[in-house]
Structure formats: structure tokens, C-alpha cells
Amino acid sequence: MHGHQIRRAAQVDRTELWSDVKPGSLYGALHRMQVEGVIEAVRTEQEGNRPARTIYALTSAGAAELIDHRDEALRDTKLRHDPVDLALQNVIDLGEDALRAIIVARRKALAEQLDAWLALRELAAPHIRGLEWTTFRHTELRLRTELAWHDELLDQLPKLMANQPTSMTTS
């Protein structure tokens, strides 16, 4: 595929869920991957007056690396730290009302993400096959769990703030 096809495929495959490559840096990433030997330029094509496009293919080393990344992702069970947990440990300078407003806004954003995800699943439903259903469900459950945690936090916030230290220094 050429770069534009790769970008479109990455959008369809939701590459942003497992990669930090943004559309604007795709060509730089392709160049780095070519230098690393995981892809190779196989030919250049030109249609009409459009610029010439380089067609890339996965090398055998690239296919092996892809399998390694897949297998590592399937085995990895490490629960990653959520930055919000650290932030909540350092809210001494925020009053309860200010913190509540932040948490309510976070919850609203997460609810919007869930709504958008469910709409995307509905739109994609005719094209979803096999295990793709489980990936949609996994994301849905993660968002629902985040919403439940935010609801619990908002419910317990007065009690939690009452027990909060009043300064960052501890004895």
C-alpha cells in the first residue's frame, strides 16, 4: 500500500488504540520503518497528475515483529497507572466544589465517549466479524466501569474531602 492507503486502513483498524503514530507523522514513521527493515518500498505509482506514490510492503522481519507485538499484547496483563489517581492525591489546594466540577466534567466527557463508541459500533455492525465484537465490547465495558467509578467518587466526595489533609507537608 502507499501512505494514503495505510492512513485510511489505520483509521478503519483503530490503530490509535495501540500506536502513537498520528496521521501527520505517518510518512516519517514509514521512513523510520524502512530504515529499520520492517517495510520496504516495492515500487512507485503515479495516477494522472497526482504526485508519485511509493508502495510499501511488509518484510519478513516486519511480519515477525508484528507477530511479536501481537503476542506480547495478548500476554501482557499489567494494569497501567491512571494519572487521575496521582492527581487525586494532590488536590489539597482544591475545595470540594472545584474538585466536584472537575470530576463531573470528566464523567460527562467519558459518557460522551461511550455514546460515540456505541454509535460507532452500531454503524460498523454490518462489517464486524469474529473477535472484532469482543474489542468493541471490551472498550464499552472499560468506559462503563470508568463511569461507575466516577459516580462512586462523586457520591463519596464529601466524606473523602472531610478526611483530606490540609497541607502537603506531613509529619
What is this structure, in a nutshell?
With 171 residues, the chain is mostly helical. The chain has helices at residues 3-12, 26-36, 60-75, 83-88, 96-124, 132-162, and strands at residues 39-45, 53-58. The chain contains 6 helices and 2 strands.
Considering the chains and any ligands shown, give keywords for the structure.
single chain; 171 residues; Arc Repressor Mutant, subunit A; 2 domains; two-stranded antiparallel sheet; 2 strands
What features would you describe in this structure?
It is a single chain. With 171 residues, the protein is mostly helical. It has two domains: 73 residues, Winged helix-like DNA-binding domain superfamily/Winged helix DNA-binding domain (Arc Repressor Mutant, subunit A), CATH 1.10.10.10; 80 residues. Helices cover 60% and strands 8% of the residues. It contains six helices and two strands; from the N terminus they run ααββαααα. A hairpin with a 7-residue loop joins strand 1 and strand 2. The model has no long low-confidence stretch (mean pLDDT 85).
